[in-house]
Specification:
about 375 residues; alpha/beta; globular; eight-stranded parallel beta barrel; two-stranded antiparallel sheet
């Protein structure tokens, strides 16, 4: 539904996670018997969870631990790990920086040139302890880094920008040819980010294996404040999922929709899947792991920008191991741990045996769903009132 917000200016109503709820069905099933697996190209994962390619969330060590639990963590090839041999020292500088100086210090750290030899080195580190490895870079570096990554043994490659489109206009430089890069790739490519039906459809036409959905919803991202752009994640996911379904009917090729960011709890994660996601990507949730490189902190991927930072360093704390966050047992009551069991339980409660069935679940507009009857939790700042 659209509304006029001024003379001949229409605006469409969009929805985020806090404004909707999942409606239980007439059938329930054993949560232990539902299938939440994910397939990306030839690779199958027990969990449909990806860890975001943020330096404070994913290091080679965390990527290995994450993969062993059944998910896929993505390492940032434009970050600290490919700029510094001894990245632990640099991470300590970021974490210990005074709040008022954090942006300046991070910008300075990221001025160090990327060393291409470290790309292969980091991938080999992940491959030694893990069977599947994934890496990410910005579009300008994609063609060159993809070649290095493939030769080093990477299994999945992500090309990621604040907004990625197939058609890009520029006179000062040559825009990258996404269809050409995807066609030459020997491993599955995931492209992002986008939030609309048309943009998603054009990205799918390149031959990629997945699309990242989300502009500005991340907890460390300030894009929506700095640029004023974005679409709430429920609506964005539904629109892109509709493009996926149309594309599949037309071509017979299935492209994964991966909701990227904006999910604070396992309840939000469940809503993303009910909106049509095949997988989700998170940063904050996994930055809380004991194995996370940011030691309870993380910062947005666009924060180091020299002229227009679009991120901030945030403190998320440390709650447990990556295994506890993914598979439990949970030691907190706020939906930030054992997200795998939460997803299974939600699917069981609506009678969905697979992610595809779960995507058909009914949803309602319910902006008061998280506050209804929760006055004591709010006043005592426990559970859903934190």
């Amino acid at each position: 539904m659209t509304f006029f917000i001024g003379h001949k200016k229409e605006a469409r109503r969009s929805y985020g996670f806090d404004e909707v709820a999942i409606v239980p069905g007439t059938v329930t099933m054993n949560p232990e018997e539902v299938d939440i697996s994910l397939k990306i190209g030839p690779h199958k994962f027990k969990l449909p969870f990806l860890a975001s390619a943020m330096d404070g969330a994913v290091s080679p060590k965390l990527a290995v631990a994450f993969n062993k639990c059944g998910g896929l963590a993505v390492l940032n090839l434009d970050g600290i790990y490919t700029r510094y041999e001894n990245y632990e020292e640099v991470l300590n500088d970021v974490v210990s920086a005074p709040l008022e100086k954090s942006t300046e210090i991070i910008q300075k750290i990221y001025k160090e040139p990327i060393k291409e030899k470290l790309i292969a080195q980091r991938i080999k580190e992940m491959k030694q302890g893990s069977s599947v490895s994934a890496v990410s870079c910005i579009p300008n570096n994609a063609e060159r880094y993809l070649k290095i990554a493939q030769e080093a043994g990477a299994n999945v490659f992500v090309i990621q920008a604040t907004i990625l489109t197939v058609k890009h206009i520029a006179k000062k430089y040559k825009p990258i040819d996404l269809p050409k890069i995807v066609k030459k790739a020997k491993i599955p490519l995931i492209l992002g980010n986008c939030v609309s039906y048309d943009a998603a459809l054009e990205l799918m036409d390149t031959g990629c294996s997945g699309i990242l959905v989300g502009i500005g919803p991340g907890s460390a991202c300030t894009t929506r404040g700095v640029l004023g752009i974005g679409v709430p994640q429920v609506t964005a996911t539904i629109d892109c999922a509709q493009a996926r379904d149309y594309y599949y009917k037309q071509t017979g090729r299935y492209v994964n929709i991966i909701t990227d960011g904006g999910m604070n709890t396992s309840g939000d994660i469940c809503k993303a899947f009910a909106s049509g996601a095949d997988a989700i990507m998170l940063g904050s949730a996994f930055a809380r792991a004991k194995e996370a490189p940011g030691k309870g902190y993380h910062w947005g991927m666009a924060m180091p920008h020299q002229n227009l930072p679009r991120g901030t360093r945030i403190h998320v704390g440390t709650t447990g191991s990556i295994k506890e966050i993914l598979l439990g047992p949970a030691t907190v009551d706020d939906g930030t741990m054992n997200i795998g069991a939460a997803l299974r339980t939600c699917m069981g409660n609506v009678g969905a045996g697979t992610i595809k069935e779960f995507q058909l679940t009914k949803m309602i507009i319910a902006p008061d769903i998280k506050s209804e009857g929760k006055i004591l939790q709010k006043t005592q700042k426990v559970g859903m009132g934190k």
